[in-house]
Design a protein that fits this description.
Chain lengths: ~280, ~290
């Protein structure tokens, strides 16, 4: 076969693949927004769900999801900052560096359902907390640790060494250097990572479905160790009754609400990243 | 005062690091302990076909088969599609559109898996059942197709990064030698980017193995290896869908619960090994 023909066949293949990929993208976005906006209303957002979710709205599901993600954010943020600072400022040993890398990447690779099982065994059964949103928040916090750690570590790592040396030569102690030079960057990088992590955490179903949520009849929790209902698990229970058109319609509405929450987190992370990528030392 | 602050600060960063490391180790230990019962009682019989908790039979072969076949279908579709699309974005698409395109794809990667599951139930299972004239559209093939869409963004963005990072001079020299774009791409660019692209595919593989919600909703959840074994139009079961369906029903402390933990532990080992290989033997990609 001559080269010219091969070249044009290859070109066609590439265009075809790109069209398929764009087609999938357009299909997903249109379906989610079209179906979603058809079944969403103000009333849907502020009323509670009735009849196993096939009627009514998603008010308590939104509250539950927000509670879970807030809890995850509050737990994982300080932990990740500490880890990132330790890794970049204190660890000099190459093997220890590799070890911390392995830990972060392993944590990142653990399938989400495994987190759910871990929480079920350790907290719900062993510590006997029962199904609780607080436990769900802890598990989600563990799940997003790697994202926040890496993002904050990268922004600390981009600070030139001369900054640290200058600060030390002014007579600051190591912790004062960290507090004044390292910390501001660590927080700003970590916050971008936190937004990305929360975008993932708010949509996760598998880790929380056994340990943090009940499917129906749940309102505002009265204490730490009470179940909530959340958007993803609500969609799951509606998807399992997909033969009922009312349930399916509410599932599209809940999906749109969830998607908008996810996108608001991830888009603000993109914007922050874009702003800080212009930052030069 | 500052010396005091110094040690407090050090204490904070050290303890948060060791706490995080301890968490990872505890996850492994807890899963191992609670699956130990099954490993010691069932032993090698875990690699048999029949799963029947009431008769204390815990064979996981059909779930391993399901996981492997679903992943195989997903990669079979997503690999060529993803790499070709990456070539399109990096080599054909004008530079000014590149960022928009990539951001759109990254947003796609952020759609929660339960929503993919919903779309699969509402559209894909119906399409598959009417296309192949099946009684139910919840088959291994449907789950595989959906999974391929879910891992596509990972393959596209990472392979595109790899291609885009190759300096322009390689393309110019290749063009100067009179090669067609096709030859430039296959003979120059792809070999350079090969390691990174393999890394991207391994990362996608890890995700596909561990994906739960969408697969659970679409695979049909029947513990059986279809006959013949390449008949992907039959319902099946993956490790993750088994866990998602049954762990809530099994009593804590029972052999059933322990057996479920055992397959979870196997999955964990496989995925972690893959992740570590990806991160250390191929170029480190800082993106998550």
């Amino acid at each position: 076969m001559d080269r010219k023909l091969k070249n044009s066949i290859f070109k066609m293949l590439i265009w075809a693949a790109a069209c398929v990929a764009i087609g999938i993208l357009v299909f997903l976005i249109t379906v989610l927004f079209y179906k979603g906006f058809q079944s969403i209303s103000v009333d849907f957002l502020i009323s509670e769900s009735k009849n196993f979710g096939s009627e009514g709205g998603v008010f308590y599901q939104i509250i539950g999801s927000v509670l879970l993600t807030l809890c995850a954010a509050i737990i994982s943020f300080p932990l990740s900052l500490g880890f990132a600072i330790y890794k970049s400022e204190y660890v000099k040993n190459k093997y220890l560096q590799n070890f911390t890398d392995t830990i972060i990447y392993s944590l990142n690779g653990i399938p989400s359902i495994i987190f759910g099982i871990f929480g079920l065994i350790l907290f719900v059964n062993f510590f006997n907390t029962g199904v609780s949103w607080f436990v769900g928040g802890i598990i989600l916090a563990i799940m997003i640790l790697p994202t926040v750690i890496l993002s904050s570590y990268q922004s600390i790592n981009s600070i030139p060494n001369s900054y640290r040396e200058n600060a030390l030569s002014l007579g600051l102690t190591k912790w004062q250097v960290i507090k004044t030079v390292i910390f501001p960057r660590a927080i700003s990088g970590g916050f971008t990572g936190l937004l990305l992590g929360l975008a993932r955490a708010i949509g996760e179903t598998a880790p929380i479905m056994f340990i943090a949520t009940a499917f129906s009849g749940v309102t505002f929790p009265n204490g730490l160790f009470e179940p909530v209902s959340s958007l993803p698990t609500h969609i799951l229970s509606l998807a399992q009754q997909a033969t009922n058109p009312d349930a399916l319609e509410n599932a599209w509405g809940s999906s749109l609400v969830l998607i908008l929450l996810v996108f608001s987190f991830s888009i603000s992370a993109f914007v922050r990243r874009l702003q800080y990528s212009k930052l030069k030392y | 005062m500052s010396a005091f602050q110094n040690s407090i600060g050090r204490g904070y960063v050290v303890s948060s690091t060791y706490l995080s490391i301890a968490i990872v180790l505890v996850i492994f230990i807890v899963l191992f302990i609670s699956s130990y019962d099954a490993f010691s009682t069932v032993g090698w019989k875990i690699f048999t076909l029949e799963w029947n908790p009431s008769k204390d039979k815990f064979g996981v072969l059909s779930m391993i088969y399901g996981t492997l076949s679903v992943t195989f279908i997903a990669l079979l579709i997503a690999m060529p599609l993803g790499v070709l699309t990456a070539i399109f974005i990096s080599e054909i698409l004008p530079e000014k559109f590149r960022l928009y395109f990539k951001s759109a794809i990254e947003l796609l990667a952020g759609i929660p898996s339960i929503i993919y599951g919903l779309i699969g139930i509402a559209f894909f299972s119906g399409w598959v059942s009417s296309l192949f004239e099946l009684a139910t559209g919840r088959t291994i093939l449907t789950a595989g197709i959906l999974l391929s869409i879910m891992v596509l963004p990972t393959i596209i963005t990472l392979s595109e990064d790899a291609l885009h990072n190759i300096p322009k001079k390689y393309r110019e020299v290749s063009k100067g030698l009179g090669l067609y774009p096709f030859e430039t791409i296959t003979k120059t660019l792809l070999p350079i980017a090969k390691n990174d692209i393999i890394g991207a595919i391994l990362l996608a593989l890890g995700r596909a193995l561990g994906e739960t919600m969408a697969v659970m909703l679409l695979i049909g959840s029947i513990d059986r290896i279809p006959d013949p074994f390449y008949n992907f139009l039959a319902p099946g079961q993956t490790i993750t869908s088994k866990l998602g369906r049954e762990i809530g029903e099994s009593a804590f402390g029972s052999l059933h619960f322990s057996a479920l933990n055992a397959i979870g532990f196997l999955l964990l080992l496989i995925v972690i090994t893959l992740t570590i290989i990806t991160q250390f033997y191929f170029k480190k990609e800082d993106r998550l």
